[in-house]
Amino acid sequence: MTAKELKAQLRNERLSARDAIAPEERISKSLAMADHAGEAVAFEPGTIISGFLPIRSEADLRPLMARFAARGARLCVPAILDKQTIVFRELAEDAPLIATGFGTVGPAEHAVILDPEIMLVPLSAFDVRGHRIGYGAGYYDRAISRLREKGLHPKLIGIAFDCQEVAHVPDEPHDISLDAILTESGLRFFASWIG
């Protein structure tokens, strides 16, 4: 089995496990994530943090993002521009939300596009080394690469439930590893900058 085929198998298995979590349990787990990371992630007021609004069975990051905003973070969420590109539009309080592709919603085209300094990254599976499997379209890998080409090095926090952990993600040269992973059990660090 190739790395790509193994990733696809792990993605399907872990997303099925995530889908099996009851909606009320997902709410409880999402609130636990906010409690674990709301104060533990170090940043200065004005820091640009990208989150995401939940689709399908993802964790609901709105409570965590609200805590970051209360600490002075500027929030943004992804918007899909085409089959290759996402940008991060500022999530201003009371701004109307529109469909932004791939089943997501976010601010409209006139919203300011920001370059995140900290990114909360959705994923389908992760391992203890900080390697992740995304949803298969490569949007985040390309977005992170574009930021790095601009000389920026956003800190990456994967967002998942415990059931999405696997023993080993088959990593490839183009894969970008995480600095931390946040689940309902806590915030695990792979890099020292966060705490």
Summarize this structure briefly.
The chain has 195 residues and is an alpha/beta fold. It is 27% helix and 25% strand. Helix 2 (23-37) runs parallel beside helix 3 (62-70).
List the helices and strands and how they pair.
Layout: H1 3-19, H2 23-37, E1 48-50, H3 62-70, E2 74-80, E3 86-90, E4 97-101, E5 104-107, E6 113-114, E7 118-122, E8 125-126, E9 132-133, H4 139-149, E10 155-159, E11 180-183, E12 186-189
Parallel strand pairs: 1-2, 1-7, 7-10, 10-11
Antiparallel strand pairs: 2-3, 3-6, 4-5, 8-9, 11-12
Helix pairs in contact: 2-3
Walk me through this protein's architecture.
With 195 residues, this protein is α/β, with parallel strands linked by helices. The protein is built from 4 helices and 12 strands; from the N terminus they run ααβαββββββββαβββ. Strands 6-3-2-1-7-10-11-12 form an 8-stranded mixed β-sheet, sandwiched between helices. Helix 2 packs parallel to helix 3. The longest helix is centred in the first third of the chain and has 17 residues. The mean pLDDT is 93.
Spell the H/E element sequence.
HHEHEEEEEEEEHEEE
Largest sheet: 8 strands, mixed
The largest beta-sheet arranges its strands as 6-3-2-1-7-10-11-12
Which regions are unreliable across 5 or more consecutive residues at pLDDT < 50?
Answer: none
Number of strands: 12
What is the overall silhouette?
globular
Supply Rg: 16 Å
Return the structural class.
Answer: alpha/beta
Into which percentage range does the β-strand content fall? 15-25%
How many angstroms separate the termini? 38 Å
Helix % is 25-40%
Tally of individual helices = 4
